[in-house]
Amino acid sequence: MTTRPYSGIWPVAPTPFTENGAVDDDGMRRVLDCMIDQGCDGICILANFSEQFLISDAEREHLTKLCLAHVDGRVPVIVTISHFATDIVVARARQAKQLGAAIVMMMAPYHGALLKGNAQQTFDQFRMVGDVGIPIMIQDAPLSGVDLPVPLLVRMAREIEMVKLFKIESAGVATKMRALLDTAGDAVEGPFDGEEGITLLADLDAGATGSMTSALIPDLIRPVITAHAAGDRDAAVAGYTAVLPVINHENRQCGFRAAKAAMVEGGVIGSDFCRHPIDPLPAPTRAELLGLMRPLDPIVLRWGR
Questions:
Q1: Are 127 and 95 in contact (CB under 8 A)?
Q2: Number of domains the chain is built from
Q3: Which pLDDT belongs to residue 143?
Q4: CB atoms within 10 A of CB 274
Q5: Which CATH number covers residue 14?
Q6: What pLDDT is stored for residue 1 in this prediction?
Q7: Which residue positions in the chain have pLDDT lower than 50?
Q8: Do strands 115-116 and 110-111 pair parallel, antiparallel, or not at all (unpaired)?
Q9: Is there a domain that residue 35 lies in?
Q10: 199 assigned to some structural domain
């Protein structure tokens, strides 16, 4: 297997709120500490699973400063900077770099279902962020509705020095990952998947070296990645088989609400409040999630107890 600089598990940190809907600063610090104790190789903040679409610009700036100061170099931090406006994305990249972020992550420019950057506009936005001088992870996510074909991804990997990592979440991840690596080669320093690891085994077989899951069970997913990297596919399959029911339930039934529900259960945070218009996690769905998790004894369910 090709050795690449970026590997392991780099989950997305959830953003906790108090029962009245305010950002919970102390809870945010505890979330980060719990993730580090779960053995995360890095942490991503302000992503979709951080509910970035429910956070104000002022809260985003506050959380960027709080998270980077609290982690204080214990693990690398990725700051999500996606926005349709290139000037805003560039400003966010500059701030993240100034505050000590290791990487920025961004989707292609989009706003709603119909306002999307074309291939050249997308390339130009990433190029201008690259000029800031901080490594970039391209998030190829279905949420944006923007098609990022392999030739465009290869062009960005080869022509934009700071484009180093790729989080592939579109349909057929393994096929797209394999085509990207076959064409771009060592220009891709960190091929990652996402989507809670729902296709992790196939993606590792295709050449992924890392995964950006949620913060639900990274301590149980990381051994799958390390075993696969060491050439022990049988151990990777066994580990993945054990956790797949939890991953499936999270991916198909809970979404970003799963990690916070588990963190409340484990005493990490005090509330899993959902800002409107997101509905709270239904009680039966929560009970099913925790029932699947308890036999696996993940750190999150006992960290704060």
A1: no
A2: 1
A3: 85
A4: 17
A5: 3.20.20.70
A6: 41
A7: 1
A8: antiparallel
A9: yes
A10: yes
Distance CA 299, CA 253 (A): 22
Q: How many residues does the chain have?
A: 305
The gap between the terminal CA atoms of the chain, to the nearest Å, is 41
Residue 98 included in any domain: yes
pLDDT per position as a tens digit, 259-291: 999 999 999 999 999 999 999 999 999 999 999
- Domain of residue 171 covers 8-219
pLDDT at residue number 133: 98
Residue 181 lies in a domain: yes
Annotated active-site residue in 97, 116, 167, 176: 167
Annotated catalytic, 176? no
pLDDT at 112: 86
